[in-house]
Amino acid sequence: MQVAIFGAGCFWGIEETFRRTPGVVESVSGYSGGHVPNPTYKQVCTDTTGHAEVVKVTFDPAVVSYRDLLEVFWKSHNPTQVNRQGPDVGSQYRTVIFYTGEDQAREARESKERLAASGKWKRPIATQIEPAGEFWPAEEYHQKYLLKRGLDNCHLPTHDGD
Question: I need a labelling partner for 53 at 20 to 30 A (CA). Which of 7, 41, 103, 131 fits?
Answer without folding.
Answer: 103
